[in-house]
Amino acid sequence: MLERLFKLKENNTNTKTEVVSGLITFFSMSYILVVNPAVLSAAGIPLDRVFTATIIAILVGTLIMALAANYPIVVAPGMGINSYFAILAATSGYNYKTLLATCFLGAVIFVILSATKFRESLIDSIPNNLRHGISAAIGLFIAFLGLKNSSLIVANPHTILSLGDLKNPVAYMTILGIFIILVLLALEVKGAIFIGMAVVAIISYFTGMLKVEKVFGIPHMDLSLLYNPVNESINALQLGLYGIVFTFLMVTLFDTTGTMVAVTSQAGLIKNGKMEKAKEALLADSFASLAGSMFGTTPTSAYIESSAGVANGGRTGLTALTTSFLVVISIFLFPLASSLASVPAITSPALIIIGSFMMESIAKIDWSDITEAFPAFVTIVGIPLTGSINDGIAFGFIFYVVLKLSKKQWKDIHPLMYIFAILFVIQLLWLHV
């Protein structure tokens, strides 16, 4: 049955390799089961609902990826976009249900795009340098939040920001976690982030920073929708939150596409320059985002941590299916996960290091052409400094169109870029959140 479902021999693999690869992938990405609830519960979403929604989103996306696309890729709530959601909830004045509705609307559009060829036009319309700039900017954004949450960086009325008190237990435990994870990464240890978090958690427990009253148990499994998606979506549109919807859609689309290309290339699954099951893979992510938005989490993305399983030899959906099985088992560790999520020193190192991973995109930007370099630059500084992925992307798009027009480089501007730039100008001036 496994051979028929996953074509193991055709992909030069076997059941043992796929199962072990799924186990490795799980330990590499399992930090999200703690970090995502920690980030989104700060936005007001009940922690047990975020935990449940995270698992639902992972299962929906990863099972479709495994069974329909037959790819060894795991889908889970994306880092960066969840932090953006939390900041919006804290600063915009809108409640989490209205903001979840913008995620829902973005996911609906994503499903439609994934089922049509228009997705290719949308992806192709965004210049490569801007894509790289967006990725690097979100990396900085994530890292800054980790530094802030751990009190390594604090507000300063004279310098805006300054170094925090390194004698603060949260600060020095975060630094310890960073060093542990980095050493493990340097030694190419599988599941380095998970192991680093576990070590910090153990130390935190014995020093009294972490309180664990219970290890095993399941969350309040209320599988009803967290809100009415239709009513809240109408409310979000009436409030003019188009820019936020667009941001959730764009970040998810580019993040997923880039990750899938990277992982499938590593696995040797790209044939004749194309992903054979691109449509199914994008549908997996779009349906996961749709399910997650209705139950209580932000948009999903294909996870780059899937490359850990691929490096071990994982080549088919059986790797992803194994990871899904382990995610289901994690439901029974909810009390432990919720305790871990309450300690910033445990989750912050993951945010900082994941942010550093995303900075590699800067090397791919063409810095010799000002019409390409400055839009990428303003995006890179705009997202972390404004605390808004939407605003950073908006400035990048607008400057790109203006600079290209100033040099009469009409051919470099995709027609959709004009539309995006105009919409962003309207959003920044009249519909800004």
Automatic annotation (TrEMBL):
Transmembrane helix as a keyword?
yes
GO CC entries: plasma membrane
Q: Where are the transmembrane segments?
A: 20-43, 50-74, 94-113, 134-155, 170-187, 194-212, 239-261, 282-304, 316-336, 343-362, 374-403, 415-432
GO molecular function annotation: purine nucleobase transmembrane transporter activity
What Pfam families does the record tag this protein with? Xan_ur_permease
In the bilayer, the protein is annotated as:
Multi-pass membrane protein
Question: What's the chief localization of this chain?
Answer: membrane
Is Secreted found in the keyword set? no
The UniProt keyword set, sorted, is: Cell membrane, Membrane, Transmembrane, Transmembrane helix, Transport
Q: Where in the cell is it found?
A: Cell membrane
InterPro entries for the chain: Azg-like, Azg-like_bact_archaea, NCS2
Extract the PANTHER family matched here. XANTHINE/URACIL PERMEASE C887.17-RELATED, XANTHINE_URACIL PERMEASE C887.17-RELATED
Q: Which family does it belong to?
A: Belongs to the nucleobase:cation symporter-2 (NCS2) (TC 2.A.40) family. Azg-like subfamily.
User: By what name is this protein known?
Assistant: Guanine/hypoxanthine permease PbuO
Q: Which organism is it from?
A: Gemella haemolysans ATCC 10379
